[in-house]
Write a structure and sequence with these properties.
3-stranded antiparallel sheet, 13 helices, 2 domains, 19 strands, about 15% strand, 6-stranded mixed sheet, about 425 residues, Creatine Amidinohydrolase, Chain A, domain 1, globular, Creatine Amidinohydrolase, alpha+beta
Length: about 425
Amino acid sequence: MREQLKRFIEQMEENSVAIIPAAHEVTRSYDTEFKFRQDSDFWYLTGFPEPDAIAIIDPNNKRSPYTLYVRPRDPLMETWFGRREGVEGAVKNYGADTALSVERFVSDLPKLLNGRDHLYYRFAVDRELDHQILKYLTEQRVRRLKTAYPPHTIIDPTPMIGEMRLHKSPEEVELMQISANIAAEAHILAMKKVRPGMNEGQVEALMEAYMKDRGASGVAYNSIVGGGDNATILHYVENNMPLKDGDLLLIDAGAEYKGYASDITRTFPVNGKFTAAQREVYDVVLDVQKKCIEFTVVGNTHAQRQEYSIELLTEGMKKLGLLKGKTKDLIKKKAYLKYYMHGVGHWLGLDVHDAGRYYVDQQAKHSKPYAPGMVLTVEPGIYVSPDDKAAPAKYRGIGIRIEDDVLVTEDGNRNLTAKVTKEADEIEAIMQKASRK
């Protein structure tokens, strides 16, 4: 049994059962589907890679506390769509105590739930499964509980699993480091290959091809490859415009390796040389990013780090002439939002915006302190719209974000993405050396 599943069972209420479904394939059009990606919580607990499965976790069942309902072997379907593990593979290769055909699940539901006090289940994700469970509970009510009692309490397991996922094991950190290395190398490749006249899409293609060649299953999210003014659009994903001499290129791209994400942003000049104005903004963002990485240590909280980034960037905006006034007053008026409108970072893990609460209380008043094993991004930025007539002309159309993935440790932190440089002089040296080859 996987260690994650053992820890989940240890936290379950007495006399409870959990139903954790896998993801389903999603139709793209007619009879074609998007590439399948497993549900992150299901993957975390089971490691089972196929769609349509259902995990039953029942500590009271001493013979089979972990049962997997899976698609049965089917030679015809496997000829068309690929091999299946089937019930034998679910036990042999994925550690299920018992495996059964998913076609049996509905008829087995009463014996799985009857007599249990608590049901761990996440509603509003799998509509068909929601209907099956609600139908069972309704039928039990109609029978006036003449049969064994159904669960009287339904608990969403998402917060519990999310808290588990926040604290990475050494094995998870190793996978995340591999993911980070692959993405870092892809960013370095982009720095070496980018030239004026290329298209944003060409850069996206060469990076994503490199990631897959190095063993990644693909990208961890839609890559952002924005040249010039496009860098001021936070989630720009069209990636179809030509790259111009004299413009900056912002690339936000990460790899997915064995389910785990990396998330890196670098901003650099298309022609390999920062202009004076670009360098001025870049140096401000880089200084803030380094200080926020230093702040990402045990004991500091997520809210404190955000406030720290706002204070530092507001000072930087004043230095650049983007804002005028007292820092305290500017922060109070939220003047910084014009140029810095997002958080300084987020949890990272199986999902690029990973599971886990940012607060320790239900009212979201007390921010969660950082603890060893947490992985976060650190990504301050400054974005000056090309249409901002109030900004100094030399800065209009400049968008800069610098992002690394940081593991909190007992004695500080570790930058998982340090392999890809962010020092302006080093970036220029890499690009100029590559251009001479």
